[in-house]
Amino acid sequence: MQLDYRIRIITEHEGVDFFGVADLSSAKDVIIDQGGFFVADYPKAISIGIRLPDSVVDELPDRDNRAVAVNYKHVYDITNLRLDLLTSKLASIIQQEGHKALAIPASERYDDKRICAVFSHKLAANLAGLGWIGKSCLLVTQEAGPRVRWSTVLTDAPLEITGKQLKVKCENCNACVEICPVNAFTGESFKENEPREVRYDAKKCEDYLYTSKDHSQWKICGLCIYACPHGKK
Asked: Are 91 and 153 in contact (CB under 8 A)?
């Protein structure tokens, strides 16, 4: 069975909402800067996304309600676990076919100073044509807005590229900027040649979310996910 087809069938069976394959050659310098040559050695990326349930995201304005917070954290954690299990499975299949593959965790920090992972899932999804980078620095899809969790498998397998980058469609909308409780977003639109800091202060967001120095206690927010009109019905 052709590897492309086999991977696509598995992802559909696992209930994935978004699937794409990206050519990473145009972003190699950015990938090296973030995660080093360890991750930049792979020319392609499989991007998969699972949509968060609207029934949970729509309640985020009431996030101080413990029931809302518990439900959101549970959905967040379980979705990340689903993604990690699937990317591990896909990486094993690709390796069995004689190719290199590296599954990137859905939510694991690599650099505490820059507050980032070893590889950007949003970058892969963007290059695969699944969405654009919004003013919130989230990946925004046409179908679900930013209400999606993402994960990635890096590989050298000869997979067919599925799409191309979409045009940014935020235009004059500032819903995510205006709703942020700590003003973490500047309102600047995404530009490939500009660092994340032009649009987003990750430290402000982190300081708001974590209520203890050792990160053992945290609260939820997600208002930028909730506010985006592309995800609302």
From this structure: yes
